[in-house]
What we know:
Layout: H1 4-12, E1 16-17, E2 24-25, E3 28-32, E4 36-40, E5 60-64, E6 70-73, E7 78-88, E8 93-99, H2 101-104, E9 108-111, E10 120-129, E11 135-138, E12 142-150
Antiparallel strand pairs: 1-7, 2-3, 3-12, 4-5, 6-11, 7-10, 8-12, 9-10
Amino acid sequence: MLADLQVVELAKHGGIVPFYPERLSSYGYDLTLSHKLLVPKYSYFGQNIIDPEADLTDMFEEQLADGDGYFIIPPHGFVLGCSVEYLTIPRNIQAVVYGRSTYARIGIISNVTPLEPEWEGNVTIEISNTNNLPAKIYVGKGIGQVVFHEAEMECKVSYKD
């Protein structure tokens, strides 16, 4: 696992752009939520089955944060968020994003698949509200913490391959 000084070095070489030093922790970095979300079109959910292998491009519509810089997720709803930060994962690193306790305490679950070696991009974050009440999530605030794991040996096949 990379320590804070190693994460700073990763960022200096373009691994985290933009990099905010105040988002650094002992062994991770807080990703911030961008100002746009993909929100499910609830008419799409009138279907009997949602198939992950189907083309889901028509399932979502883009929504921008309101003037106060937050989104409201309906009870038992979910949205797709995006990190402000663009990550470039080196070939000898795999990263995992964990949800923040700030949101977990109010029933907000953030889910991200592993960030594979040599993957790059803004991180898509599935954000679910498990509560019976609507919940706020804030733009520009930490939505999840990314932890970088360095391999003892470089992988034979990376995401880029």
